[in-house]
Every structure is written in C-alpha cells, then in structure tokens.
C-alpha cells in the first residue's frame, strides 16, 4: 500500500546531522550485499565517506538533507564531482542516497534525486551518474523509472 507523500525541504547538511546521516547510511546494506561483501563492510564504507565529508570534504562535494515539516531529517544524498573515464569531462555523481525507514515510500528519495539534478545542472554538468549493486533490484527499478540507464557492468573475481 503506497504511503502518503510528505512535503520536504532540501537543505545542506550540518555537522549536527551526522548521527542521522550515519543511521540512514546504515540501511544501505538491507538489500543483501553480494556474497563476498559483508553488510558491516558496506555500512562502514558509507559511514567513512560521510564522516570524511565533515572532516575533509572533497572540492565541490555536498550532502543535501531532506527535512520534514518540523525540520526533522528524512533522508540525504551525497553528491560529488567526478570525471568521465572516456571523455574526462567533469560530471556530478550520486555517491550515497539514503532515506529513513519511516519515510520510505513517501517521495523523499524522489525529492532528493530532483535536488541532485538541480545541483548538477547549476554546477554546469551535462550528466549525473550513480552506482548501484546489481542485486539491489528495488533501487535499480526506481532509478530506471526516473530516467537512469545502465552503462557499464563491473565484474569482480576474488583472488584470495
């Protein structure tokens, strides 16, 4: 059953948002990581990126928070500048997007993705990319529904 859409305000992340950001990032392994990755490994990688944003942010990087009517954080998107492998053209990249469990299905992710596109356009980027685990079918369906298309597939062979 669809949840009620909520009205959100998008704002830059503040240091006091860090506990929420880490908690929300902790949900990113719920889809079930590949067998060679542990959930803890995925969560720690995302948490490390979020903590690094506040201690030593990369040039041009931003974390945007979706806040509810009372100002409470509902989700966030971590955006970075990167370069296209083939053309070396700068573009925007969605490094992390996460929504609080109680706000899932309420339009928060859509609002964050629209904000990400606005950020990329305002920065003069001609494209916005993201990476998603092959097994995260729900997220892949959402991204495809809003116009993203797969471009490359990364293969992994464990050597140990």
Care to describe what's here?
By secondary structure, the protein is α+β, with helices and mostly antiparallel strands. It has one domain: 3-Layer(aba) Sandwich (Aminopeptidase), CATH 3.40.630.30. It contains 4 helices and 5 strands. The protein has a 5-stranded mixed beta sheet with strand order 1-2-3-4-5, sandwiched between helices. Helix 1 runs antiparallel to helix 2. The longest helix is centred in the first third of the chain and has 17 residues. It is globular and about 50 Å long. It starts with 8 loop residues before the first strand and ends in a 15-residue tail after the last helix. 24% of the residues are buried. The model has no long low-confidence stretch (mean pLDDT 93).
Give the topology.
Blueprint: E1 9-12, H1 18-25, H2 39-55, E2 62-67, E3 73-83, E4 90-99, H3 108-122, E5 128-130, H4 137-145
Parallel strand pairs: 4-5
Antiparallel strand pairs: 1-2, 2-3, 3-4
Helix pairs in contact: 1-2
């Amino acid at each position: 059953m669809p949840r009620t859409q909520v009205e959100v305000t998008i704002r830059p992340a503040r240091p006091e948002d860090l506990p929420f950001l880490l908690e929300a990032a902790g949900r990113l392994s719920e889809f079930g990581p590949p067998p060679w990755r542990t959930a803890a490994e995925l969560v720690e990688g995302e948490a490390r990126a979020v903590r690094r944003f506040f201690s030593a942010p990369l040039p041009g990087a931003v974390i945007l928070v979706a806040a509810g009517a009372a100002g409470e954080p509902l989700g966030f998107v971590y955006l970075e500048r990167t370069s296209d492998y083939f053309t070396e053209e700068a573009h925007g990249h969605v490094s992390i997007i996460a929504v609080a469990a109680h706000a899932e299905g309420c339009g928060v992710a859509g609002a964050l993705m629209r904000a990400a596109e606005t950020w990329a356009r305002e920065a003069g980027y001609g494209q916005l990319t993201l990476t998603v685990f092959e097994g995260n079918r729900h997220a892949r369906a959402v991204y495809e529904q809003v116009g993203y298309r797969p471009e490359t597939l990364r293969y992994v062979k464990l050597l140990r």
